[in-house]
Amino acid sequence: MRSVSAFLAGLALTVGGSEGFPFASDDTEAPIVRLLEAGQEPRQSLRFRCKAGQKSRLTMTMTMAMDLSLGGQAAPAVKIPATRMTMELEVTDVDPSGDIRYQMKMLKPEVLKDPDSPAPVVEAMTKALMGMQGLSGRAVVTSRGITREAELTIPPGADPQTRQLMEGFRQSLRQIGSPFPQEPVGAGARWETIVHLSQNGLVLTQTSISRLVALQGDAGKLAIELRQAAEPQEVKAPNLPPGAKLELLSYSGSGEGETEFDLGRLAPSRGRVQLTADSRMMLQLEGPKQEMAMQKQEMAMKMRMAVEMEGK
Hints:
- By secondary structure, the protein is mainly beta.
- It has one domain (4-311): Lipovitellin-phosvitin complex, beta-sheet shell regions, CATH 2.30.230.
- 12% of the residues lie in helices and 50% in strands.
- It contains three helices and 14 strands.
- The protein is globular.
- The N and C termini lie far apart (43 Å).
């Protein structure tokens, strides 16, 4: 069995879910976007207007910290190293409806050095990220920034940890375009986005409020507040020991962020989001060869995550 540190790090990545920007999932319905305030005059319809052949580069850096208690007893803190992913995006086609098709390629996934992170955690994450080197995929996003498709080619024989990170990255592709409302808006406009997410074995609902802080020509800035909630459910986590069962008892999350966009290109100029999530889970380890056979252990976890994005 993996070390406790490596297992807890994998568990954090599982329950971490979305990095906080609104997106749709392939296996759920599209997001619901509802205008709350139209904002000041002059107003305009926010629509991406990319051109075929356009290239951009996007870098995402994620940091995470976690506090965990087992059976009411605080567990040793797990220091999870930061990760950074750099990808290249190329628009391949823009159809008459405004749908934008693009290809992506992972250029440089890396685990940032941190002497305080346990060696087993660093080794597990480094191995998983190395499996993503050269990863390619394709996606289709509407002119309003709603991703309709996102496909990645997962190499045959990829281990569960690598597959988990790839699935998380597939979901991250959906954060490149933040959904805009159907109606024309101006500075000060506010809209609500509701989406049901399915990621790494956890199904949750995310509600975000976007506020148009500034708009000048094609350039704008959004401030985002978000909430996440999940019903009790069994979590199909790929990093669990054989025979183990993980049940989510409760989950709630909240966060805030901002993103700067340019309607002439798909990748945000820059963006950031901070998310805090509290969850309670029941872990059951079964089997005659397990040291904790048939024992149930309640866990409480508080996770803090931050993601920064920069596009060029």
